[in-house]
Amino acid sequence: MIRKKKVKNPRLTLTKRNINAWGYAYLFIAPTLIGVLVLNLWGIIQSIYYSFHEVKGFNDPEFIGLENYVRLFSDGEVFRALKNILVYAAITVPIGVTLSLLLAVLLNAKIKGKGLFRCIYFLPVVSAPAAVVLVWKWLYNKDFGLINQVLETFHISGPDWLGSGSIAMVSVAIVGIWSMLGYNMILLLAGLQEVPKELYEAAEIDGGGAVQKFLKITVPLISPTLFFVIVTTIINALQVFDTIFMMFKTSSPAFSAVESIVYLFYRYTFTNYNKGYGSAIVVLLFVIIMAITGVQLKLQKKWVHYND
Amino acid sequence: MKHKKRKNIFVYTVLIIMAFIMVLPFIWTILTAFKTQSEALQVPPQILPSSWSLRNFKAVMEVLPFGKFFVNTFLMILFRVLGSVFFSALAGYAFARLVFPGKNVLFAIILLQMMVPGQIFILPQYMIVSKLAWLNSIKALVLPGIVSTFGTFLMRQFFMGLPRDLEEAAVLDGCSIWKTFWKIMLPLTKPGLVSVGIFTALFAWKDLLWPLIVNMSIDKMTLSTGLVNLMGQYSVDYPQLMAGSLIAILPMLILFLFFQKQFVEGIATSGTKG
Amino acid sequence: MKKYKRIFALLLTVILVFVLGACGNSKNNDGSGDKQASGGEKVELKMIFWDSNQEAGLNDMAEGFMKQNENISVNVEIVPWDEYWTKIQAAAQGGDLPDIVVMHPDQVETYASGGVLMDLTDVLDGEIANRENFPEYVVADFRVDEKDYGIPKDIGTLALYYNKDVFDEAGVEYPSNAWTWEDLSAAAEKLTNEEAGIYGLNADNNGQNFYWNIIWQNGGDVLSEDGKTCTFDSPETIEAMKYAVSFVEKGYSPTPAQFANLTADEYFESGKSAMTFAGSWMLTEYQSVDELNFDVVELPKGKERASICSGMAFSVSANTAYPEEAKKFAEYLGSEEAQLIQAESGAAIPAYSGTQQPWIDQFADFDAAPFVKVEEYGHTSPGFTASTSEATAVLDEYMTQVFSLELPVEEGMKIITDKINETLK
């Protein structure tokens, strides 16, 4: 039986030369690391701390152990909110990322008006939220919104986008995809710049079609960027809040179908001044996102093509 | 030949339809900026304004010190972009290509920031700014954005996608780590740097809650927060708000148009022999 | 090569400048200490509020004060409602709360019991801003643990708005101040025109703007006197809610699903609802709609007259650097003179008795007196304060179902009462 001895990376051994190299590395990451520790880590630790306490209003935190968590796991509202964000993510991530990828590829190819199109697709990203919400509320209006009017001409009776719980999350998802297309498109475009043209040319000579080129060359080579886009899109999807906050009142019949975890957190922390429970909710979201991201980081070995 | 033409028509159709959907709110913003409040509140909505007067733009510029808003926003964006682009590139490279103990753990710590809703940082960051006596200043506006985990993660991905040969050649040539980074690797990631720049600028420009909380006087306000002054608690003058929004969009659009040119195609990696 | 050197140098310079600037400048924000302004030293007071429509009025009031106090200057800051409370919270914790903070009845308890606000009982006992001059339920709203924490600023009340054109079209007589519940229902029936998509009344799933008022008009209430028990299931309340929901039942009002598409205000402004219960605060917006030809009467009478009358108040930061001056300013803000200035500036109805006439006078097209009349029989908001605000979530969930006709009124009220009582424990 041959036992493979675990070989330690020579650059991690304690030699003078290595320590010198490490010095550079630590220096390089220092600003960002210090920034995150000072600006962000304190906030995260504080939230975790509060989650084990009762923190109401301006009073001092009172230690209550796992009480917030016990309540959390039997709270119907929390489960509902979890379901809502999973639905939202399930719709926006696959569709959003695929569309952005298609757009990026199309806008990287030889077509006229590339610059103009890129600018246009970027517009949702810079539009004033007030305007965005107004327009979508009109588009979605059941009686005279543009969407239902268009559906009418195809003899389809449009749904109650804003008032019905069964479709409300889809309404939010559509706005979500619409807002993120510009972001992801830019990122993927940047990634596409790293793909050397010669590879495409070589593939053409070999007789590859567009789809072949896309799958065998483009995707693997932009996989680092694509990975980034997928991870950040999922994280953002699970944290959805702004759109819901602006488009739905808490007393709307569709509200319970769209309330997200972050909305719940916002309600408890800022409206009810109940920072303890609010923090527990944040911790729950944090753990979920950490788990999902962790899984993705592990899986990246399988499909992300780094030049290692 | 026919095949290509059909494909092109299909592509253009898709692009144009999608472009229309993307641009709709923007068109609506423009149209509303020329309407009167009464026209803007109509149900069902009236599409075209009855007259194209600039009165709303004039009114907004009189009421709000847009000049100051632009300066404050510009400074905030400038420093945040400089800081985050530079520091993200540094850290991104280190996490991508350098070897050092604790690399993965430290990277994970940095990533943590993205995994929680930003609102939990507001109060702690406020306390820091308050204790430093930086309230109501540009410094306060810049601080939360001077480093970027988003940018670090992105730059790491970019660096990891670059071919190794250049680096190895540089090491063989005796380049120091800094030189390798600065002279050789960094220039290859220009699109990445531009992206980080654009997004940092964007987040800074959009940030509403933070400037409102750390500023105390209207002349320290940024564009986004200045606009909110156009919204009363119970009634919003929509045409004015839209006019203001259009004025506020200008810097971002200009920035984007300018940097859009940086998305030049292809990288000449023909310097190495495979 | 050279280009990079230049960029690098530039970057370094910029970062250096920034860092140096950080070390140098600490003049900007002075901490709180107890400073006594003695003879001639310039005092700066800060006031903060959320409605930009009232900024001019507040500035006028500040000027009135500054004229009488040459050595004090006042700065008014407006932060929009959605962000106001986050800012106040942050500022309070950081010890930089502005000297004068406008308080809301639902929020005052949290801030007062957190030790963030100054006790103003003696100001209300004094001569200039004596408590007798304000509706007593408004003063009471800002009383926590037997101490007063707010000088009343304004009152917001509700009235019945009606669209004259729609009434004319339907040939229905205009409402009067003598209207009763029967009159309201009868008119709503005649005004509702299904083909034209016109509704008689906005029966909105909104306590403040609709159903609390109906409940009070029937002698019922939402919470018991001591605020410790929910009384949604009392017979008077159930009866009132049945009346409130009847408009939706009979088709005289849009449903909650419809209100999710168009708000009650939008229904009224576009002429799709003939009548609506709405606040004095809506006047600015309604007036700006040229096609809207409206007038105003008092809310109809049930067993008694009732309408919400909620007031905001000026509070003083407990941590202010100038306690004497801030208190003086707060007192001025509650004086007859200041309140008259507020009335004249138009955006809010002053809380001080007898100063409301200028506010009424500014409206030429209709009689705004009904709003002021409410002072006599007003109720304050049921006070779902931060500690009881989980009750709001219960209402959001179940009241919506009641108005959507998915839950019968009586059953709904029982469920709501039980759940709210649970949150009150």
Structure in a nutshell:
By secondary structure, chain A is mostly helical. Helices cover 72% and strands 1% of the residues of chain A.
Short key terms for the protein model shown above:
heterotrimer, A: 308 residues, mainly alpha, MetI-like fold, two-stranded antiparallel sheet, 2 strands, 1% strand, B: 274 residues, 2 domains, 14 helices, 69% helix, globular, disordered C terminus
Task: Walk me through what this model shows.
The complex is a heterotrimer of chains A (308), B (274) and C (425). Chain A is mainly alpha-helical and 308 residues long. In chain A, 72% of the residues lie in helices and 1% in strands. Chain A has helices at 16-51, 67-73, 76-106, 114-126, 129-140, 146-153, 165-192, 197-205, 210-221, 223-238, 242-247, 255-258, 261-271, 275-303; strands at 53-54, 62-63. In chain A, a hairpin with a 7-residue loop joins strand 1 and strand 2 (62-63). The longest helix of chain A has 36 residues, at 16-51. Chain B has 274 residues and is an all-alpha fold. Chain B has 2 domains: 2-57, no CATH class; 64-229, MetI-like fold (Orthogonal Bundle). Chain B has 14 helices and no strands. Chain B has helices at residues 2-33, 37-40, 55-63, 66-97, 103-112, 119-131, 138-142, 149-160, 164-172, 177-188, 190-206, 209-214, 223-228, 238-260. The radius of gyration of chain B is 23 Å and the shape is globular. By secondary structure, chain C is of the alpha/beta class. In chain C, strands 1, 2, 3, 6, 7, 8, 9, 10, 11 and 12 form a 10-stranded mixed sheet that branches. Chain C has a two-stranded antiparallel sheet with strand order 4-5. Chain C folds into 2 domains: 44-156 and 310-361, D-Maltodextrin-Binding Protein, domain 2; 158-309 and 382-424, D-Maltodextrin-Binding Protein, domain 2 (3-Layer(aba) Sandwich). In chain C, strand 1 (43-49), helix 2 and strand 2 form a beta-alpha-beta unit. Classes of the chains: A mainly alpha (308), B mainly alpha (274), C alpha/beta (425). Chains in contact: A-B, A-C, B-C.
